[in-house]
Design goal:
heterodimer, A: about 160 residues, alpha+beta, Alpha-Beta Plaits, five-stranded antiparallel β-sheet, about 30% helix, about 40% strand, B: about 575 residues, Rossmann fold, 3 domains, six-stranded parallel β-sheet, globular
Chain lengths: ~160, ~575
């Protein structure tokens, strides 16, 4: 099963390496990882997407907890939460497809963040399915490149338990 | 008043009660060594290799329970400590290793003798630091000792750039440390302990598995109380040896790959395993699916990650073994008072039958020395009053099987990492801690050559460490596997040109003794113990001898291979089961 794990860590030198080293050293898989500061600048939050059966996920959360710099580990699998990721996608459509690109971007509530005579760069935010659907739709239009952020997630205030 | 970083380092170590450092100098740690030049309170033991220094700190820690300390230079000095750190990490041994580092402004420049030792050692330390501000120095050292020695202990490394040890600041020693993200659980869950007591009361065929955690948390007395009170047999893992007296009637010896027949049979037949401070290593469990098929499992360990890592557990209790066993004993004595002797009679009788059927023996012959005979004689002559260290391989297993350890911290062996070259420096570390005790490294001719240079250290500091070399001219355990599992294809396990260890010892200024016949063994041991000097005892042993019983890797632990009976004797191989 795929789990999104949220890890509060001390914002210290080398902490990302301790966390990623744990995954590589023990043969766990990281699908994506994103790191950022929290309200307290001494604390960072990592959102890690990983895969494994129950026993592996239990080990991952325990091993994360065991790291000295880890303050709190939360497996969002058991908790109602909101997930988002972002993609920046650069498209060079043929003249006759330009309108279609813009129309689709609008349907997906995307924003044009850069444009040149031949290209548009579109920003889309959403859950994974939405991002993937948009990328699929754009492929026939002439995608030059795209960059996806890792996933970030936050628990919902109401009805925290599934 | 401002003092130098070097002074802060050494004064901080003193505040932590450090009396001995094992070390080796080099360019970027010269500030610290210069401060040590005038110091009277701390003795630095100058080793001949940084790996030796780290294992010595480890042996010092294992034998005393205190934190062992090593001090080395940057680059190669630091990388030479990696094996020692990994050894200590696998066996949860508290050591602090101080490494020099190039000046902060040069870090990352591929400077002379620069190595990213914090990066290199991240996976083999419990925690590590690069100190970038002299004002953090004292607190960092305090924190390092706290982390190394608390919870599940382990090695901590502190990297000290040269400019930091030269910089000046006020020395403020913190009274205490608090780390918000590090608070090991010590007290076990009460409800779980109650439940464990109920399981024990109901169990008909319980077995206690005593692991290294029993020794680390000084829980031997509590474990013995539990075993004796509820009449439960105890099997000690390699790391748990000494945690329960080997000569106790309830002792089953070691479980697992080279465990005793009766320990493995007991586990396989058991209805309840009480695992204390152990982690169900593959050398203990053999084939996991077939391990202890009838048993419920109570697992006591301070590290939550060990629980349910390898085996399913019915009652997990996270916390300090000593505290949990105390509470458990209390709970057992509080409850109804079963007639333990009556309840256990059948089970203990069964164990006695197994012990009788296949005791730990070997075939003594008069014309060639059997390694087991040497180990037995060492026990006999010392009366068991010795600290034994081992190398890794056959020597380690024979030392575990044929010497009896009745007290904790008297058997020091690299269990997890299996580090050849560990035993000799570890013995030196233990001898530094206990100058008047008999310390013996039971070694092989392969392993001893991995840190043989430390002979010079024993001479320099007048440390009368004894080394019993079980010399078979082979990497014996490798040879054994090749004989049994690789069709006797002895690929690179024959050590041609084993040196004359008597001459090697003498060349360093130590004593060298040799026995080539069984009749000479005891005299050699007596002579080695008589002289108050370091001694190499070279025992020319039967090179064909193998370690038995043996469970092939990946097989269930009741599928044991035994030594072939000599032809004359009757075969009595039928198992009771």
């Amino acid at each position: 099963m795929r789990h999104t794990i949220s890890v509060l860590v001390e914002n210290k030198f080398g902490v990302l390496s301790r966390v990623s080293g744990l995954f590589s050293g023990r043969g766990y898989n990281i699908e994506s990882i994103s790191v950022g500061e929290t309200l307290d600048p001494k604390i960072s939050i990592m959102t890690i997407v990983t895969k494994g059966d129950d026993q592996i996920i239990e080990q991952i959360t325990k091993q994360l907890n065991k790291l000295i710099d880890v303050i709190k580990v939360q497996d969002l699998f058991e908790i109602d939460h909101v997930e988002r990721e972002m993609v920046l996608i650069k498209i060079a459509p043929k003249q006759e497809l330009k309108g279609e690109v813009l129309r689709l971007a609008e349907i997906f509530r995307g924003r044009i963040v850069d444009s040149s005579p031949k290209t548009y760069t579109i920003e889309i935010t959403g859950d994974e399915k939405k991002i993937e659907a948009f990328i699929e739709l754009m492929k026939p239009m002439g995608v030059k490149e795209f960059v996806r952020s890792g996933k970030i997630a936050i628990s919902r205030e109401m009805a925290r338990s599934k | 008043m401002k003092v130098s970083g070097s002074q802060i380092v050494i004064e901080s170590l003193k505040k932590e009660g450090v009396r001995h450092i094992f070390g080796y100098p080099g360019g970027v740690v010269l500030n610290i060594f210069d401060y040590l030049y005038d110091d009277k309170d701390i003795q630095l033991i100058l080793t001949r290799h940084e790996q030796g220094a780290t294992h010595m700190a480890d042996g010092y820690a294992r034998s005393t329970g205190k934190v062992g300390v090593a001090l080395v230079t940057s680059g190669p000095g630091a990388t030479n400590t990696v094996t020692g750190l990994a050894t200590a990490a696998m066996d949860s041994i508290p050591i602090v290793v101080l490494t020099g580092q190039v000046p902060t402004m040069l870090i990352g420049n591929d400077a002379f003798q620069e190595a990213d030792i914090v990066g290199i050692t991240r996976p083999c330390t419990k925690y590590n630091y690069l100190v970038k501000d002299v004002n953090d120095l004292a607190y960092t050292i305090k924190e390092a000792f706290h982390i190394a020695s608390s919870g599940r202990p382990g090695p901590v490394l502190i990297d000290l750039p040269k400019d930091i040890t030269a910089a000046q600041c006020a020395f403020n020693w913190p009274d205490k440390v608090s780390i918000r993200s590090y608070n090991p659980t010590l007290e076990g869950n009460k409800w779980m302990i109650e439940k464990a007591a109920q399981f024990i009361s109901k169990s008909k065929k319980p077995v206690i598995l005593c692991g290294g955690g029993v020794i680390l948390s000084n829980a031997s007395e509590q474990l013995r109380e539990l075993a004796e009170f509820a009449q439960i047999p105890v099997s000690s893992t390699l790391m748990g040896i000494g945690g329960f007296p080997s000569s106790h009637p309830l002792s089953l010896g070691m479980p697992g790959m080279h465990g005793t027949y009766y320990a493995n049979m007991a586990i396989q037949e058991s209805d309840l395993l009480i695992a204390v401070g152990m982690r169900f290593d593959d050398r203990v469990t053999g084939k996991l699916d077939a391990f202890a098929p009838h048993a419920s499992i109570i697992h006591i360990d301070i590290d939550p990650t060990t629980i349910r890592k390898n085996v399913e557990v019915d009652i997990p209790i996270v916390g300090d073994s000593k505290r949990i066993l105390s509470s458990l004993n209390h709970a057992l004595k509080e409850g109804e008072k079963p007639q333990w002797d009556e309840i256990r009679r059948q089970w203990l009788k069964q164990l006695d039958q197994w012990k009788e059927l296949r005791p730990m023996t070997y075939h003594y012959v008069a014309d060639v020395i059997k390694p087991q005979y040497v180990v037995e004689k060492l026990y006999e002559v010392t009366g068991g009053d010795a600290i034994i260290t081992t190398e890794v391989g056959q020597n380690q297993m024979w030392a575990a099987q044929f010497f009896k350890y009745d007290r904790p911290r008297t058997f020091l062996s690299s269990g997890g990492l299996g580090t050849m070259g560990y035993g000799f420096p570890a013995a030196i570390g233990a001898q530094v801690a206990y100058p008047d005790k008999v310390v013996i490294d039971i070694a092989g001719d392969g392993s001893i050559q991995m840190n043989i240079q430390e002979l010079a250290t024993t001479i320099a500091y007048d440390l009368p460490v004894k080394v019993a070399i079980l010399n078979n001219g082979y990497l014996g355990m490798v040879r054994q596997w090749q004989e049994l599992f690789y069709k006797e294809r002895y690929s690179y396990s024959y050590l041609a040109n084993v040196p004359d260890f008597v001459k090697v010892a003498e060349a360093y200024g130590a004593v060298g003794l040799r026995a080539t016949r069984p009749s000479e063994v005891e005299d050699v041991i007596r002579e080695a113990l008589r002289v108050r000097r370091p001694v190499f005892m070279d025992f020319a042993i039967d090179w064909k001898e193998k370690v038995y019983p043996m469970v092939p890797a990946g097989a269930p632990i009741d599928q044991m291979m035994f030594e072939e009976e000599p032809k004359k004797e009757e075969k009595k191989l039928k198992a009771v089961k």
